[in-house]
Amino acid sequence: MGKYDLWFEEWEKAAKFSNDADDLARVAAARRSYPKSGYRGAMKRVAELRKSKQSASTLIPYLLP
C-alpha cells in the first residue's frame, strides 16, 4: 500500500480524537476500496459517502412552517 497506509492511520486517529462517526465511516470505506481501485477509487467512494450524507441532512425549505 505504500505510504497511504500511514495516511489512513492518521486520518483514523484524527476521526477518533474528534469523535466523528461519519469520518470514521469514510476512512473505513476508503481503506476497503483502496486495494481494489487505488487512490482515485478510494477518493471517489469518500465523495459518494459525503454526497449521500449531505443530501440526507439537507432540509427541504418548503416543508418548514
Sum this structure up briefly.
The chain is mostly helical. It is built from two helices and no strands. Helix content is 78%, strand content 0%.
State the helicity in percent bands.
Answer: over 70%
Domain count, please report it.
1
Number of strands: 0
Q: For the CA atoms, what is the radius of gyration?
A: 15 Å
Secondary-structure element series: HH
The total of helices stands at 2
Overall pLDDT confidence: 83
| Sheet with the most strands, sense and barrel status | none
Uncertain residue segments: none
Ends distance: 52 Å
Principal-axes geometry comes out as: flat
Task: Lay out the secondary structure.
Elements: H1 4-17, H2 21-57
Question: Which descriptors apply to this entry?
Answer:
mainly alpha; single chain; 0% strand; 65 residues
Give a verbal description of the structure:
By secondary structure, the protein is mainly α. Helix content is 78%, strand content 0%. It has two helices and no strands. Helix 1 packs across helix 2 (21-57). It is flat and about 50 Å long. The termini are far apart. 8% of the residues are buried.
